[in-house]
Specification:
38% strand; four-stranded antiparallel β-sheet; 1 helix; single chain; mainly beta
Length: 124
């Protein structure tokens, strides 16, 4: 067995299993309140995600309340250090995170307004 050298170091079999999903969840994360994290209810330490996709919430008329100046902040695994936050704008959507076990996932908008939200699709 290969020696593990870090939090995200995998054996060959574990690496292969990262591409196998046994469940998936969909939820809408509410970004209407400025600088307030909306945390995924489906991604927990007991049910870690192997892959997460953020995208615009689908609507019948294909419109979105997110605007070009909206800046989204993603926090993974409860990290609070400023250099461990992922900053994206809506032009980066859909945004995919894969390759590590995600035990908590939160998104916030710098300029949240009523109706702002993103869809979160998580694979476990």
């Amino acid at each position: 067995m290969a020696s593990k050298l870090g939090y995200n170091a995998f054996t060959v079999q574990e690496s292969v299993n990262m591409d196998a999903f046994s469940a998936w969840n969909y939820e809408v994360l509410d970004l209407s309140t400025d600088e307030t994290n909306d945390t995924s209810a489906h991604i927990t330490s007991a049910n870690p995600a192997k892959k997460v996709v953020l995208y615009h919430v689908p609507s019948i008329d294909a419109s979105s309340t997110l605007e070009v100046d909206d800046l989204l902040t993603i926090t993974i695994n409860g990290e609070t250090d400023a250099n461990k936050l992922i900053l994206i704008d809506i032009g980066d959507l859909p945004f995919t995170i894969t390759g590590l076990l995600i035990t908590s996932f939160a998104v916030q908008s710098k300029t949240g307004t009523t109706g702002d939200s993103v869809a979160c699709l998580s694979f476990h």
